[in-house]
Amino acid sequence: MLEVKDINAWYGDVHILRDLSLSVDAGEVLCMLGRNGAGKTTALKAIMGLVKPRSGSIALDGVELTELPAYRVPKQGIAYVPQGRRLFAELSVAENLEIGLMARDKGRDTRDRVLDLFPVLRERLKQRSGTLSGGEQQMLAMARALCLEPRVLLLDEPTEGLMPSMIAAIRDSVSRLRRQGVAIVLVEQRVDAVLPVADRVAFIENGCTRDTVAVEALHGDLSLVHKYVGVGR
Prior knowledge:
GO terms for molecular function: ATP binding; ATP hydrolysis activity; branched-chain amino acid transmembrane transporter activity. The chain has seven helices and ten strands.
């Protein structure tokens, strides 16, 4: 479905992504794990066209995305929830969702389906998004992205700074989306947040994919986690 092959990307003169490759299929959760600065966020930005690779290929169902301007990538069916959420803090919950709907000309039916995933947001539609709790803001960021009805969802550290109950809610949402056939690329630092939901894990080091394994291989053996992330929790 989504295939990233041998991409190279720079920030100025700094070579960040080095022949990085990964793939994810419909209804699959691929997690990228690696130390801070390994290139995980840059890989997501490259998929979205926010960082232009100098070489390599990024294709969705055979459609080459590197040739498209960034604003057209969401129209292909890829949604991105960046680290830090990037909500419009002065706008209401409903207005943030409306912006998501506009990206692919979706309507009220789509919004209702999204709110079924995050029912707490129904009670907050008129509330200014900047006044929501951290967990509620993360739910809104995901809900806004899902208003695109994406085939692929990119999540950058969605559980960062959240209390355990909110982490469980986000994890449940990821599992439900997988069952609906959405392909998910998940960047995380918390191994305990990854193991229950991921199908495969790609370990990223120095901008390159070093190992990609089925998540079952990590149950009871966290040697790869210690090698590439440095922690085992």
